[in-house]
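#data-curation
PF: Archiving a pair of folding outputs for the training set. Convention for this channel: one message per protein, sequence first, structure tokens after, nothing in between. First:
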Amino acid sequence: MKEWEKYLQDGKEFAWKDQTSTNLIVTDEMKLIGARYYNVSHTSNGNKTTQMKLDNCPTDTVGHGTHTASIVDGAFVANASYNGLAQGTARGGSPYARIAMYNACFEDGCPGSTTLKAINDAIKDGVDIIYISIGMSSLFQSNFLKDPIAIGAFHAEQMGVLVVCSGGNEGPDPFTIINATPWIFIVPASNIDRDLQSAVLPGNGRTFQGSAINFSNLTRTETYPLAYGKDIATKFSPISEARNCYPGSLDLEKVKGKFIVCVDAFPIGVAILDH
């Protein structure tokens, strides 16, 4: 990173700190060492220009960037748990790394021009690795010549900077990986090394164990019958759609007062009906 270079952005001063400098005392708490944000004009339909802007600061107002950054290089956190479950020490993949954040996304999305600008800035700032946790759905991915992430990552690779991208949240079906470019290091979704299970008692004396978290202290509740989606399809709905509880495929009168069992066979998700 650049050594103590200060710059002004919209009248506010930020300092980039060189972690190798002998004049700098580095502490474990010094995780964030730089931040940039972008106010850009966005043109849609070829003739309408609007100003897409943040709150004049690099703050992560949604939380997605902070969340993914903690996965990549979050510091050690002792006695972490979820309401007492899975207790242990939590950490990111590279807990001793430092972070420079580039807030290139807005409520309306992540413009390609802003993404490319952020990648160029990161290269100029001297980062070692660029991590990008955004991307299009696998159903709508563009080719390498039009994808701004692929273009920016190729430029970074040519400059000696490794680009790591998320592989998306879809799968495990074939062809659901995103950012699948030869010069990008892809990180797929993963799971924890703990198996959290709860029991389901349907009322017929049987018990089913499954992956779930249940903090309820109820010993018994009112019971309702189960119904499979395929058995309560509307008159003209294909069984394949009803089995997946596809919107409009189930007979609402037959749904009322029941728990519906759906089989998720669509990679884009499944509808859950609550009646």
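PF: Second:
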Amino acid sequence: MVAGSLGRECLVISSRVLIAKASHDHCSEFLKEVVEACTRFQSETSHKDPIHVTAHFLRATNVGPAEVHVSIQKIGKNFTNLSADIGQGGYTRLTSHLIFGDLTPVPDGIPRSLSPPSPYARRLPLLDHPSAVVPDRMRRAWKFHSLLSWSMDHTILARNAMRSQTRPDTEIIGGGGAEWGAWCELTRTDDDIKPSSIPFFGDMFLNLPSLLPDSEPASQGTSDCWFPTVTMTVEFKARIPSSQDFAPRTVGLYSESRFLTDPHGRHNAHVEVWTAPSAIGQGKLEVGWRDKQYCIAVVDQMALTLPMDLNHRQGNRKKMSAKL
């Protein structure tokens, strides 16, 4: 990490990172590098915890060296505002704004959190305990598939299928879209989930175009498409647990997507990242296990639906430029 010599309130730092092939295919990995650099930068301050991240993906990154440039926008009593960019080859590839603070619960005063047994509290939306499920096959197109394992919630997927059975003359109020859920975990025992991992997990889901049945006209050709993320926001609700009551390498994921619109097949996704009581296929079911889980973060993004050959043409142009 290279730091400037200005006062902290106007300090600009550069952190050198290496974009690997595995992360090159998943844009949230770039945001992971940004959150990691900013978390290190804030580690000696009173605002150590990431609270909110907004990112715009401007250009695709290439495999190889890049730099994260971090600058302080404001230091307040409760929050520190940072801006951070990833630069590579003379271009800004990603630009972001981050808010850091302190996620330590306030011990005194009026409680401002909704949690069980309140009927207004959000509960874990996955139906099965991790011990009762088995891993599903991941997409081999993902270069990092050997580093992850997941088990999808097939009851949630079945609810999507039920929507296709709605009679055409039935009045629908609200509704629409599709949902998805899974337990997802890091397979290497020396890996642990940390704040910079959350953007990646928040990007690990099956999107709306992929979940549509063949009978839906908007699903035609999506198997030959790619889905570049344009914007992503991450709100950290709580710290990642360190207690042995939670799995250190496993999270629960739940996503819902409501809109798919032209031009460019633009679609949204809202993803919840939850704690897990155990690893996939391990642990035991205990009474009240669901109410003990809590949401670590929520992630929202806007993405496009574009022909895969466009992605290939861009990749070929980059290879040709590198040779020249």
